[in-house]
Write a sequence for this structure.
């Protein structure tokens, strides 16, 4: 089975999953999007209203900001795989519960194993705690660390950065370092470096009136 077929199989399993109560209120599951051979994998928190409607991750206000952040780093959505720690929307955008994280963790681990990214970027505290238990995101954001056979970079969730203007410079700075960090990871893994074409124009401040962290 190819990597693409494996990712499709996982997505199919997610679409009919009943391992936790989140399936009871979902419209569409959100397994994740991106190439099965992506070198960078982003892991967010969970689907929000728009994601639940469309079945794709980061399609709301924070998704637009993420697209701009990726463009600034010389990367597009077509280059990366984007997933969440839970694949169905928590009701009312509440925090995911431990049993929900555990149930979806099976699928997330399977995706990581198939994709085998050089770098995982965690977006928000729930995905960060999966790799950095007990850490504070304010202390470790943007700092790449090797965990097992790959590198992990914790970052603020784009929605949080939009909601709190004081966080925006930090997330801009963290994303600006991403191409250099990928090449650092590639070099450590014995892979050739990549030349990135960044879009250096300033990202406009278009904070939405209402923000959902999921």
């Amino acid at each position: 089975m190819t990597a693409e077929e494996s990712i499709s199989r996982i997505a199919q399993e997610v679409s009919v999953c009943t391992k936790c109560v989140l399936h009871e209120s979902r419209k569409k599951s959100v397994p994740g999007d991106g190439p099965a051979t992506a070198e960078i994998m982003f892991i967010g928190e969970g689907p929000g209203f728009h994601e639940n409607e469309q079945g794709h991750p980061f399609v709301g206000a924070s998704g637009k900001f993420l697209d701009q952040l990726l463009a600034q780093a010389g990367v597009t959505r077509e280059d990366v795989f984007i997933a969440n720690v839970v694949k169905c929307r928590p009701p009312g955008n509440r925090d995911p519960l431990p049993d929900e994280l555990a149930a979806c963790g099976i699928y997330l681990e399977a995706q990581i194993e198939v994709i085998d990214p050089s770098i995982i970027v965690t977006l928000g505290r729930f995905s960060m705690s999966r790799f950095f238990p007990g850490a504070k995101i304010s202390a470790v954001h943007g700092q790449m660390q090797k965990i097992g056979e790959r590198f992990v970079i914790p970052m603020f969730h784009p929605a949080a950065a939009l909601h709190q203007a004081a966080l925006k410079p930090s997330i801009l700075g963290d994303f600006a370092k991403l191409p250099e960090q990928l090449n650092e990871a590639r070099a450590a893994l014995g892979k050739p470096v990549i030349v990135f074409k960044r879009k250096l124009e300033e990202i406009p401040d278009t904070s939405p009136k209402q923000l959902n962290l999921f």
Summary: The beta strands are 40-44, 80-84, 119-123, 145-147, 150-155. The chain has one domain: 22-188.
